[in-house]
Amino acid sequence: MPGFPVPGSINGELYTLNLELSPEHPRVSERQSAAPEIDVGYVAGLARLDLTEEETAQFQKQLSEILAFVDTLSSLEVEGVEPTAHPAPILDCFREDETDKSLTREQFLRNAPDTALDQVRVPKVVDS
Q1: What are the CA-CA distances from residue 19 to residues 25, 27, 69 (Å)?
Q2: Which domain, by its residues, includes 66?
């Protein structure tokens, strides 16, 4: 399997790590269904997450169930099925633009906390 570069830095020094995962990798193993088994403890360590043994076991079980479900999806026959972005057709979901009653400039400016030259004055938020 080809690897992929992952940029990073240690103590301000930049480096690129070339990650390559394969079935021979100690953290990835192939089950009989050909779905990869991912070591949650190892990945948590890479992400610098401090998981308890119970959390690691729970996440490992949940991830295995998700991967098993995704593996069942790969066995579905999809020959001749057209790709879709939505399960149901979306028909013109936009309404026509219509003008409606709104505040006049004077009413709007009366509600503003501070005005100047017929405009709303706001506090400065960006330094020059």
Answers
A1: 11, 12, 26
A2: 28-72
